[in-house]
Amino acid sequence: xxxxxxxxxxxxxxxxxxxxxxxxxxxxxxxxxxxxxxxxxxxxxxxxxxxxxxxxxxxxxxxxxxxxxxxxxxxxxxxxxxxxxxxxxxxxxxxxxxxxxxxxxxxxxxxxxxxxxxxxxxxxxxxxxxxxxxxxxxx
Length: 139
Hints:
The chain is mainly beta and 139 residues long. 11% of the residues lie in helices and 35% in strands.
């Protein structure tokens, strides 16, 4: 229940604070999620991660089309600034070709994964389209 209230508060702030999100609109009912692995799951590296998106479409970077974006996978990090391009480094993986899955090879231990949808220029939408952050254990 606390997590749902926290997510609702983040969405409310994102829609009210113009500096906290990009300028590309997203439908209020857009839903981004990690389809696999599941939160709390133990996996063996390398492992597949697949991304899910409802009420929006996936388009490659540099393709400007309403209600579309592309995936960014955040690994062991918090959300970046919502009014800037999403960084590209080992903690912020870009899927600008429109990919909806990947294979990760992470070291053993506890890791967090979260998706953030970016527009054609890698900037989060308004409101931001963010998945739940999940925790996995890699053996």
